Amino acid sequence: MIDPKLLRSDPEAVARNMARRGLTLDVEAWRALEEKRKPYQIDVDRLRADRNANAKAVGMAKGKGTDASELMARGEALTTELATAEQALNAVQQEQTEWQMGLPNWLHESVPDGADEKANVEIRRGGQPRSFAFEVQDHIALGEKLGGLDFEAAARMSGARFTVMKGQIARLHRALAQFMLDLHTREHGYTEVYVPYLVQPQALYGTGQLPKFAEDLFAVKGEQNFHLIPTAEVPVTNLVREQIIAAEDLPLKFVCHSPCFRSEAGAAGRDTRGMIRNHQFDKVELVHVVRPADSYAALEELTANAETVLQRLEIPYRIVALCAGDMGKNSSKTYDLEAWLPSQGQYREISSCSNVEAFQARRMEARWRNPDTKKPEPVHTLNGSGLAVGRALVAVLENYQNADGTVNVPQALISYMGGVAMLTPKK
Known about the structure:
The chain is α+β, with helices and mostly antiparallel strands. 40% of the residues lie in helices and 20% in strands.
């Protein structure tokens, strides 16, 4: 959530920032909640002070050997009054918390203005799209000819938006994930983690998927209240939940390969064929936990780490800064990395790298001890795909295809493929 102190002190500034996203903040409704809270807060503060003063008086009376029964009775009455007042205050504060939980993050000043993806700003490109002397095929046709993608079998057991991979395609998919993990741990300094694929609701509230995006999640039936993770960002970021991290231990950099599960409720009709938008897919996720002063330098580093994967695979790509209207609710600033897909003649998202500042940390009570103030303060968290494995597979198949249906293996992956340099059609 955004800084509650800012919301209390300058709700108009929050409203102006939200307006950049095309959203409206009901300032009057927030002020009404604040006016409702203030008298309860005053009562609680007064009663706590009175109870503390009374307790001190009891101690002094007992120390002098005088009768403290009246003071003790008064203390019991104050405790009862305080409990009632705290209950009333907590109810209003809970109402405020639920209200704040629905608000998006504060947008960084460098985020471009704009209503939708048309206003996104290209930062740079890498590689040159290949010129083909033959009619290119999409990954669906290529994968089926290679005998490695079976969408019909997936549909029979699970329905639409699932994929079965076999043989050389399955091996290439695994090679991509292993290559990414090795690159990020060996060269970029990440610590690899393995995390649960099932989480409880508080973990999803902590990273901002709940309450707003409940329809995009898969809830698991059973006695325990579990959800399948929509991304490894959820359990990995929650590693610092309710922790106070020593300043010298920051930054923390984690990498995690996991399946991801999304209902794609908001993507009806989009990319229904193939592997671009599935209910189950793999990602190699990158998460940073940093000092607030370092988070925008960390965003550039995180983005460059994901970019290196595309460079090593020699996949043409571009990086765009998302505009205010195209940003995710949780993010303060986001870069999208987009890989070139010859069959579509366009760049498609393969990674989003975001700085969410203290938005998640406040929800999770993830803090560091600031050596300047000596007090616990929220950390900043960042996340990004380094990369989405299935989409990387799509990009490799399409960019490395040959006229005869064979697909060359990128040089960076040959050792991970046991020396296999080319995928060949099934006879």
